[in-house]
Amino acid sequence: MDVVAFYIFAAIAILASLGVVGQRNPMHSVMLLIVSFGALAGLYVLLDAPFTAVTQIIIYAGAIMVLFLFVVMLLNAHTEDDIPKTVLGPRAIRIGVLLSLLLGLEVAYALSKLGITSFTTDSGTIAKISSVAQIGVQLFTTHAFAFEVTSILILVSMVGAVVIAGRKH
Amino acid sequence: MLPDFINPTLVAHLVLIFIIFQILVLSAAFMVWMERKVCAYIQDRPGPNRVGPAGLLQPFADVIKLLMKEDLKPRAADTFVFWLAPIISTATAFAAFSVVPFGSETTLFGLLNEPLRLEVTDVNVAVLVVFAIASMGIYGVVLAGWSSNSKYSLLGGLRSAAQMISYELSYGLALAAVVMLAGSLSLREIVTNQSGYWWYVIPKWYVFLQPVGFLIFMTAGVAETNRAPFDFPEAEQELVAGYHTEYSSMAFAMFFLAEYINMVTVSAVATSLYLGGWFGPLLPEWLGWMWFLAKVLFLLFFYVWMRWTLPRYRYDQLMEFGWKWLLPVAVLNLIATAALVIWLG
Questions:
Q1: Is B131–A58 a contact, with Cβ atoms under 8 angstroms apart?
Q2: Which of A27, A163, B322, B327 makes a 20 to 30 Å CA pair with A11?
């Protein structure tokens, strides 16, 4: 049952992500990205992490993608048909291919390090972090450094956004 | 008794889901009637009174009228998204109610072996599930606005997106304060934490511990459901009908249905979070759903009352209120609650 659900969600996530890149209409791309995030949330539920699943929906599929839609709607970019296909030029495409190859190798390396066993073992070995109190304790003890670094990162981007927006005045 | 091959708990669950679905649809019809009646009385006129006793069948007549109308679609509209949008709106409206508990357990007078909980499902992150599904519901409105390919619809959709993002923050912070008090994200646990009385008189409802949070939640809830005085996405005088300008017939009816069901859900969640859910004096616990119903009806009446009493704000006033007043107050409320929870244990 879990395996079937996993393959369904994984297939939806991958197909939707491919669709995001392949779509000519930016609105459809954004919508497919939402579908992809929804499928990811389904995978989190299968991993016994309902809290992560719901926050994935709220933060990514909800808040962030609404902002994406907002921007696409405001720009009113209809389709990419008007844009010439070689807008990026051959050099940019070459760099892009190189980067994606690197990423693919990295992912393959990380997965081979993990080994096959971690996919077949049941959720008993994975710490069941479902209660909010547990998540809070984990976040502020084990992962305190990552948490603080992330908050600084967000603060920096916020300051940057304010500076860019305020430059006109 | 039932034959062996039928699992009575499963059947009871399916029946429960069916009943909740029907009640939600009927409550939307009832809300349309109540809205028109209350509006009429506030404006000193009788309101609908021809179809059925006291006009009670008027919503059904309206539905039949809408079903008979022609489905229109602008020629330049994005067909798939255009028909998808009302489906998203309605589906999320129904789905959000699935985690709201509206009564304690029952065995249906001994018919069932295990007690049946009066809710569709008990998720341990129910509060967040409601929040997540509500944030998905925005897409129905936004995509309807975009796919219609009409300037009024687009502006309505954009306004709706901006409004909902702005008020979702305060909404979430008000929720967080209650979660801190209850120490749980499960709506059922939050409700059961509110049983009992202080000094035998005051019920232990969170509204007494979180008066500010309750006001923030209700204000943000009004904005989230796009109701007056925050009904900018469909401000008639400026935007014709906003995001559903181009919709007719059943597609329009689905947006209508979604709006009323969302009101019911927000009221039901507010009842669970702040007004003690199904707990109340006098009635025995197995009749607790009556208290729940009464509280939800009161909040719904309040919604209607507010719509026909207050004029619509200006759009910039709405944004200023949301970001410069509601959000800071919600943050202060959260900090104060956290301090009190630590101080008092």
A1: yes
A2: A27
Alpha-carbon distance of B9 to B116, in angstroms, equals 7
Report the alpha-carbon distance of residue B339 to residue B345 in Å, rounded: 10
The complex's ipTM?
0.76
Residue-wise pLDDT for B192-244, tens only, equals 887 777 777 777 788 778 888 888 988 888 887 777 777 766 666 666 767 77
Cβ within 8 Å, pair B183-A58: no
The domain limits of chain B are 69-344
CA atoms of B119 and B186, how far apart (whole Å): 12
Domain range summary for chain A, segments of one domain joined by +: 1-80, 84-127, 131-169
Percentages of chain A per state (helix, strand, coil), in multiples of 5: 75, 0, 25
pLDDT of residue B70: 79
Q: Which of A31, A50, A69 sits opposite B125 (nearest CB)?
A: A50
Confidence of residue A81 (pLDDT cuts 50, 70, 90): low
**Locus of tokens 């599904």:** B133
A33 pLDDT higher than 60? yes
Residues 159-198 of chain B with CB under 8 A from chain A are: 161-162, 164-165, 168, 179, 183-185
Which CATH number is correct for A1-80, 1.20.120.1200, 3.40.50.300, 3.40.50.720, 1.20.1270.10? 1.20.120.1200
